[in-house]
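Meet today's protein:

…
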Amino acid sequence: MRFGAEGKKIFIVALISITFLITNACAQTQEQKMKMFDAHEEKARNYRITGNYQAALQEQLKAVELNPENAGSQIILGNIYIEFKQ
């Protein structure tokens, strides 16, 4: 089956639209993931301040799971482990 010039234009527009929608959905997912990461780090910080190291540990583990390449988050997790053991 051959497409005319108009058919090719429609196909290209549809392809670009689908690509845009997929990219936009992925960006929103990443943004939501980072918001959840921040929320878990904030909860961990608050629990840590009050001395509730068990809860701080659980929240920081969730944060690290969401963003495992964040070195600062890994360091905080290590510090919570140290404080929890004391």
Remarks:
- The two ends are 74 Å apart (CA to CA).
- The first helix runs from residue 5 to 49.
- The chain has a mean pLDDT of 85.
